[in-house]
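Intended use. Records like the one below are meant for learning the mapping from a protein sequence to its folded structure. Do not use them to infer anything beyond what is encoded.
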Amino acid sequence: MSNIFTPVLHPYIELRKKQVPPKVADLMLKGDSPIARFNRWLALKVTNGVGTMWCAYAFAVLALVSLPAAIASGNPVVLVSWISQTFLQLVLLSIIIVGQNVQATATDKRAEATYQDADAVLHTALQIQSHLEAQDAEIEKILSRLSGSS
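Structure written out for the chain above:
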């Protein structure tokens, strides 16, 4: 290794070697109160459960079971109300949003890690640039000595 230049690695580089990108599961176990962690866990479980085709089939069966009563009312408003308020608006929508918020938090943490990686790469690039400047200065000295001895 040359004595001309000694690179200084960004401290985050060593830290990132020991870390993995944050995952949703990491957020389930850390921070806040036990109740908040339980709420995140439950919301994520419900979101993951509801976000399957099997659950969609179960909801379709549930809807078909009670659909005749809504139709029998003869009022289209009752049918629309049954679809939107009874199930989707009051139950599923809020639970899914909470689960997606937990997932978004993990995405934010990954974005921060990506930013830190980019900062480390920038720092390294600046070090390379400084190294090249030091080499250029040494090359200039060598060239001036060679041209002076001719």
